[in-house]
Amino acid sequence: MVCLNSRQIDIIEWLIKEFTPVSIKEMALSYEVSSRTIRYDLELIENWLSENKATLVKVPKKGIELKSICERDVLLEKLKFLSVENRVLSDKERIKYVVLELLMSDIPLTIENISNKIFLSKNTIMKTLKDINVYLSRYKLELSKSTKGGFYIKGSEKKIRKLQLSIFLDVLDSNNILKILRETIEYEDISDLILNYNNFIEIDDMKRFSEHLILIQDKYNYFFTDVDFIKLIFYIAIMVKRFYKGKKIENTSNLLKDTIEYNMSKDLINRIFESNAVNCEDGEINELAKYIIESKSFNTINELKELSVEEVADKKTIEITQRLIGYVEEKINVDIKDDTQLFNGLVLHLKSAVARVQNNSQINNIYTDYIKVNFPFVYQVVEEAIRKMPDIFGVDVSDDEIAYIALHIHAAYERISEKSSRYTALLICPEGISFLSILSTRIKREIHNLNLIETCSVYDYKQFKNNIDFVISTIPLSIEETDVVTVSHFMTNDDIYKIKQTILQLNKFRFIYKFSYDNIERKMLMLKDILKKESIKLQVEADNWEEAVRKAGDILVNENKVKDLYVENMIQAIKDLGPYIVIMPGIAFAHARPDETVNETCMSMITLKKPIEFGSKQNDPVSIVFAFGANSQGEHLKALQDLAKFLSVEKNFQMLINTKDINEIYNRIIN
């Protein structure tokens, strides 16, 4: 067997995900090691790949490329299950392996016990135990030592299960586990690998739990996204194993007996323990019911529009949804109150979101930064709306939860320009209805003649396969009889291109639906109306982004066009949402939401003596900063369109940063 260190594992992941050759020099620069070191790494990597039906191919004058008989995501999953004696664990991996060993052991473990189990020196184990203390504190747990010198994890049973679930979700890929449960042939060898770790997780049990959960979904007409389906299976597996070890959740006064989720939980537990005649107390049923409530339920989008929310949510959740939509409507001046898809989808989401917040089990959203940068005002308005409901959410709603709600709102915003008349594709997005809405709306906007059947579960393929031309999915799928186009969650231009090419192959027509703005019956401001020559300053000195934004904003303050507070709002928006204002390479467009701190629609511009980093990976450093304020909706649209068109030309950007004559700059911009 081959022993791989973290860099070698990282290189394998790189080559798996990269479909073009990578040079040794490029790898050496990336990892800051010599080319000789990389060549040695590649020798070990080649040995591991050969054991797993893959190899490295040298492409002359280009580099190294990975070729594999099996699917690439299968290789990625195999990397995760490298046994501890065949890999060099990172600090984070060591912590999680030791924590799992402590959780799964029936007795406290000594340093020697742990050392023998995960093949690490006693000194390394001692250092890791110190790190574990910090790690456990996040879950309000502690590492304790028995009188005989063994270590164990001390704390409430609920928090211990939450910790174990968190590790499983972090280590195991939900989509691949789902494929294993569906007994996909190419994932059988991964299943065998997991079975080697059956002290932690047992595939046969998970398959049995999966069958029970599917029956419960059908019985109660209450369906989960694939991601949350697997999360529930993991929790059930943990619950059962710990229950049989006598680690039970006692009865609690906070019972959910009057909810459908409690009945589902009770029914599910009875099915799981039926053969052993075990009677679970209400505490166990109640805790599983909480996880069910916190999970994202789904319907296809067509079903969502017909959903009677009164049957699936309480009056309080419906009222929260109405308040949230009302606040957003008022602030962004968009009529979305009659959008049934938004209202019903948001009711379902908030039902679980409120439960997560109140149970301190808030969701992890890896797309939060993207949402903040690309939909900043929607995010900001949603955040304000939630902060105004402390009686419901409290004050500690995470950015991740806010971002998911913002996705629902943004999807509704995009649907305003949506049109119909399409061919047919099955759109699969296991992450949930909010992402599904974004994908659906983008596709419908860009591809005119494509009808979509939207779903959050791959299980729906069999139901619709005879009614579709192809599949669009955010996860790789192997379907022999139907073309599958794999896309990202936010539907890039490359994804749109792939869909169009597929339609061409099927001899279908395709058209790109273009935005059309409603006619606004008010005077439209031109660029010359809001940007004055006196509002332009050149070669301004600033030490950081905040000072640069403040100096651009102060021009408008001194002209009595905005108040001091508006400048602070611009700066705070960047702190809250990140460098979303860096709209083009070298150009920042500072602004905040229209309110009473803006006296009139206005704009200023400064060029910087020295470029400044704003934190934008794509567009730093910044040489030009605009500050913009609007006191009404829509009237400045034409001015901003003209400015965007001007700035998109590279020679105009160069002119702005190199010219020292304000008159010349002003005349070029407004003309």
Automatic annotation (TrEMBL):
What positions does the domain PRD occupy?
312-419
Which keywords label this protein?
Activator, Repeat, Transcription, Transcription regulation, Transferase
Q: Which CDD domains does the entry link to? A: PTS_IIA_fru, PTS_IIB_bgl_like
Q: What is this protein called?
A: Transcriptional antiterminator, BglG family
Task: Choose any GO biological process term that the UniProt entry carries and state it.
Answer: phosphoenolpyruvate-dependent sugar phosphotransferase system
Q: What GO molecular-function term can you cite, just one?
A: protein-N(PI)-phosphohistidine-sugar phosphotransferase activity
PTS EIIB type-2 domain: from which residue to which, for each copy?
A: 423-511
The record, for InterPro entries, names: BglG_antiterminators, HTH_11, Mga_HTH, PRD, PRD_sf, PTrfase/Anion_transptr, PTS_EIIA_type-2_dom, PTS_EIIB-like_sf
The chain positions of domain PTS EIIA type-2 read 529-671
